[in-house]
């Protein structure tokens, strides 16, 4: 059966059930587009963003889900295009595709975009795993359809993927000098009070943990810069809703380090499939000389490596991050692509011109930088 566009869902519970079924069978994990986080983002962060959900069904079930939006520019180029929607708190852009239906899902995505009168220019897909199921299927389909595809950026970011125990990993991948220094900091911090590290277990504690995290984050540089979650009502609501949904589904990995019962460092991770994504960290900057952010990452290493249900964790960090890169040895290559869209008549010509213009502008820029 050919992929089809789903009819509108009569209620949110049916939509959630279909997306949950798709997420459970996803060929590539992405906690940010699983129902826990996506529904919270749609409820609190999608207003006035023009977000559209490109969904593909086959034999009555969803085989692909791609949130998109229209951007009025492409980098510095004033050319409109379609982008995979990634809000400010989304750090991985791979759409959900059902395992075994990768090509069919992408065929359905592109067919819908080709036929959409609202879709300008081309498709700009950000933040995919270069070695993931989405990148492989997209490349194969573009070759099959002789559709233009251009990789426009890539970088490596830290991830944790190892069969070693936490102690073995620590000894093998962290320099002896750094291990010695961190042990010294742990000892000095313990001299100030009773240090306790724990994972969230009881759902009744979640509201308090969320408030502690928001308070801790707001007291630091993000609060001063106006980028802490609590600075925007919609960001705070998204955070609380995501954590609540993920905890209910058994996918929240919330870690804290306390001194005499007061939070001095907290770390939020979201699980999907056999992996997890590191979402947000906050720590008491008044204790900065003891590196509480690094110390909770050490605790996180022990928690992850001691958890049989987590095979890997994506740091979601920027390239060359000085802290996490020194602790985690593995890397994930993140890429973005420009994909040509088709259509009929004038729309096809306009889209072809936009794709060619963007490629040409990029080539000229590379020549000027001596990279071509």
Automatic annotation (TrEMBL):
Domain (BioF2-like acetyltransferase): residue spans on this chain: 176-318
Domain of life: Bacteria
Protein name: CelD-like protein
Organism: Sphingobium cloacae
């Amino acid at each position: 059966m050919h992929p089809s566009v789903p009819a509108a869902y009569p209620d949110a519970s049916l939509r959630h059930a279909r997306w949950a079924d798709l997420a459970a069978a996803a060929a590539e994990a992405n906690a940010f587009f699983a129902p826990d986080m996506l529904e919270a983002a749609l409820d609190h962060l999608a207003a006035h963003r023009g977000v559209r959900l490109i969904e593909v069904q086959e034999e009555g079930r969803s085989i692909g889900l791609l949130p998109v939006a229209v951007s009025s520019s492409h980098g510095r180029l004033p050319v409109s295009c379609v982008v995979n929607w990634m809000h400010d708190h989304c750090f991985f852009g791979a759409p959900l595709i059902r395992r075994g239906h990768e090509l069919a899902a992408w065929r359905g995505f592109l067919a819908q975009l080709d036929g959409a009168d609202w879709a300008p220019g081309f498709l700009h897909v950000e933040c995919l795993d270069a070695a993931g199921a989405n990148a492989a299927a997209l490349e194969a389909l573009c070759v099959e359809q002789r559709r233009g595809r251009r990789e426009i950026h890539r970088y490596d970011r830290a991830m944790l993927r190892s069969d070693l125990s936490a102690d073995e990993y620590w000894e093998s991948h962290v320099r002896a000098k750094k291990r010695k220094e961190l042990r010294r900091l742990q000892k000095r911090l313990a001299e100030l009070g009773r240090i306790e590290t724990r994972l969230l277990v009881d759902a009744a504690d979640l509201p308090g943990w969320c408030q502690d995290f928001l308070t801790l984050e707001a007291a630091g540089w993000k609060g001063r810069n106006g980028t802490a979650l609590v600075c925007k009502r919609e960001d705070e609501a998204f955070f609380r809703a995501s954590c609540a949904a993920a905890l209910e589904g058994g996918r929240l990995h919330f870690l804290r380090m306390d001194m005499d019962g007061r939070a001095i460092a907290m770390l939020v991770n979201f699980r999907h499939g056999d992996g997890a994504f590191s979402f947000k960290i906050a720590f008491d900057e008044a204790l900065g000389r003891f590196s509480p952010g690094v110390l909770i990452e050490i605790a996180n290493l022990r928690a992850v490596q001691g958890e049989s249900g987590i095979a890997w964790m994506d740091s979601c960090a920027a390239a060359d991050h000085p802290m996490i890169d020194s602790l985690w040895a593995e890397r994930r290559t993140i890429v973005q692509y420009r994909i040509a869209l088709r259509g009929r008549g004038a729309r096809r010509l306009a889209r072809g011109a936009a794709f060619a213009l963007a490629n040409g502008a990029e080539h000229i820029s590379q020549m000027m930088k001596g990279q071509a």
